[in-house]
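[Discussion] Sanity-checking designs against the backbone

I'm trying to build intuition for which residues belong where. Below is a structure token string of 343 positions. I'd appreciate it if someone posts a full sequence so I can compare it with mine line by line.
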């Protein structure tokens, strides 16, 4: 033995401040909690404030975390293996008792402390912005025509909503503030400038649309940084997937649109050809996909079908792609008095 306890005189090599573990622990408060701990919860989204961030978690878990993080122990020790007992006093005050082990060098000893966790209702920053109609960007969706059709409007807005929902999984600041039907299209108010920029690029690529942006200074932050609102214009083209279009002197069905261009399928021989984005404005819509006629099929043979003209009920022979799956009806289009099967 190389030492002894200054309190009881026992010989020991393991001393803490000159005392054996028993004398060191005697009448000493190992762990403490404040009289109360405040836990903030957003009344709108139900998230709890922890370490300066709003987090989704179960109520009891949030209460336990609040108590644990307020606990302190003597500087020679370390809190280890905490268990909690929760006893609600009312809806907003919860008694929490923490039982744990305190690790002091090679020793472990039990300790306990209690506090009152007070639930404080508030509104988080994101919910405050939502309720206050906060926005940084406006996505202006328009068409080359005077109005945006209901079908195209629903399709585009569904894409917008999905895009924002996906963005919100990694960034809680991403949300749609509101949507407004305006003459010629729709305005979508967005919480983030970056969200508007990404959406504009995505829609521009998906529809081969014209895009533009403009910004407006709306004020300054408390730090003196200029604040802008940005308007993003997405002007959808006259053509859409499924339309029959004229390109050059021939007619095609537009089967694909991408960021680099599209694909056309000939109504004469059903061959496919690519078209570059720069050339797509040269296409002229002949018949929109939702305006095509439907004809009853009378008979089917390899590479040909016989239909009934819905206008005069005459039978008409039409070429179809070999191996095409033909149902009871098909889509047709009339060009210069001639009926064509639309693949």
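Best answer:
Here's mine. Compare freely.
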């Amino acid at each position: 033995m190389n030492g002894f306890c200054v309190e009881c005189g026992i010989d020991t090599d393991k001393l803490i401040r000159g005392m054996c573990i028993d004398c060191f622990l005697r009448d000493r408060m190992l762990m403490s909690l404040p009289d109360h701990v405040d836990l903030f919860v957003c009344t709108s989204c139900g998230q709890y404030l922890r370490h300066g961030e709003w987090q989704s978690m179960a109520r009891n878990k949030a209460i336990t975390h609040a108590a644990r993080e307020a606990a302190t122990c003597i500087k020679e020790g370390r809190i280890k293996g905490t268990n909690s007992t929760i006893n609600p006093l009312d809806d907003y005050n919860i008694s929490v008792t923490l039982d744990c082990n305190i690790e002091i060098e090679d020793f472990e000893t039990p300790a306990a402390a209690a506090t009152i966790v007070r639930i404080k209702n508030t509104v988080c920053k994101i919910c405050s912005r939502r309720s206050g109609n906060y926005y940084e960007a406006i996505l202006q969706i328009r068409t080359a025509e005077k109005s945006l059709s209901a079908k195209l409007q629903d399709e585009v807005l569904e894409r917008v909503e999905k895009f924002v929902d996906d963005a919100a999984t990694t960034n809680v600041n991403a949300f749609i503030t509101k949507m407004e039907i305006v003459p010629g299209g729709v305005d979508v108010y967005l919480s983030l400038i970056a969200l508007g920029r990404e959406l504009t690029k995505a829609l521009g690529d998906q529809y081969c649309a014209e895009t533009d942006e403009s910004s407006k200074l709306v004020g300054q932050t408390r730090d003196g940084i200029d604040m802008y609102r940005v308007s993003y214009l997405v002007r959808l083209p006259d053509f859409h997937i499924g339309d029959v279009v004229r390109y050059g002197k021939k007619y095609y069905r537009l089967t694909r649109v991408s960021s680099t261009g599209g694909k056309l399928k000939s109504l004469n021989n059903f061959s496919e050809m690519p078209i570059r984005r720069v050339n797509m404005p040269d296409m002229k819509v002949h018949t929109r996909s939702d305006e095509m006629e439907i004809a009853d099929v009378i008979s089917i043979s390899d590479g040909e079908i016989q239909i009934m003209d819905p206008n005069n009920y005459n039978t008409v022979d039409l070429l179809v792609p070999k191996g095409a799956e033909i149902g009871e009806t098909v889509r047709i289009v009339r060009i210069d008095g001639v009926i064509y099967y639309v693949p």
